[in-house]
Amino acid sequence: MDTVKVNNRLFEKYISAEEIDDIVKSMAMEIANEMGEDEVPVFVGVMNGAFMFAADFIRHYPYPCEISFVKMSSYDGAESIGKVQELIGLSDDLKDRTVVILEDIIDTGNTLQKIYDIFESKNNKELRIATLLFKIDVYTKELPIDYIGKVIEDKFVLGYGLDYDELGRNYPNIYQLKGKIMNNIVLFGPPGAGKGTQADVIKEKYGLVHISTGDVFRYNIKNETELGILAKSYMDDGNLVPDDVTISMLKKEVEKNSDANGFIFDGFPRTTSQAEALDIFLSEKGQSINAMVSLEVAEDILEKRLLERGAVSGRADDQDVEKIRNRFNEYNTKTSILKEYYQGKDKYYGIDGVGTINDISGKIIDVIDKL
Ligand code: AMP
Which listed site, 144, 151, 159, 271, has its alpha carbon 20 to 30 Å from 308? Predict the structure, then answer.
């Protein structure tokens, strides 16, 4: 297989099973030559990623050796400490032994450093590090890496034990992400919830492209384009513009920004058909929606906000209570069900949309940072 699709992202073949085998074999021989026949080292594979590498490595190791496995595991500590990390599986007595840590991949080196510090306190005779893959450009630590299988560029890889959200470990080849990992966020909520205001903050922080379908329609109306003339009749009354028109416009906006790090979709999708069309469209590009962040605000507050905005902006659909209520009605009957659509995919994050702009941005950033 030259390409694989995992969690809706496309990966292309990067290191073949044959090349991996050659690399592992030559690492085993290099280490064996240094150790000699009389030294019996303990190889310690770091789970889960290194399980295939460790298994193949000792198969190629010609002299007596032992194998053991450890795993970094995090659990919730008291609130003040947050996540606590501990090393599990380290039961053998490693005092006065030669230990070689076997890693599948080293990037920043943060986890490796923690593991190394724990091992170092065990009074080993010697402690060395061997890694199959090494992302040299992102490595931030001083620890010397004694044995390196292959230096790779900073791109996301999976296969041969390496995973993407736990999937892909079983491939015999190693694959590399096609393109880059994008963050695609749907900013959701009723009219007046503050989506545009928050989108401005979030797009700066994450370098995302903000697409507001309402803004694109208004731009077209101002410039009296064919699309603008068509959309105006719906918008002025607070009705939704038909799906086919909106979907094709949205696709064009995405295509215009093909080198984006990701998108904030504001005001789109507003119907189930739009949400389905967006999923299909993104998946054809090997992308997906990462989260729907919804700003939750009560209608009486929204009505007040919209009337205030209308007095300043002159937006026709913000000035008339009847039109505003029709927009709420469109939202409640056609759009709000999308909460369930994204909840069903475990991608829905509701946020209280009442508070200062900063407070609300902070809550959205908390959600995105954990994605
Ligand atoms: P907004 O600026 O997001 O409040 O949108 C203003 C108006 O543009 C809406 O009331 C609709 O008439 C139209 N519109 C914006 N986005 C969409 C969409 N995704 N689907 C249909 N109509 C939309």
Answer: 271
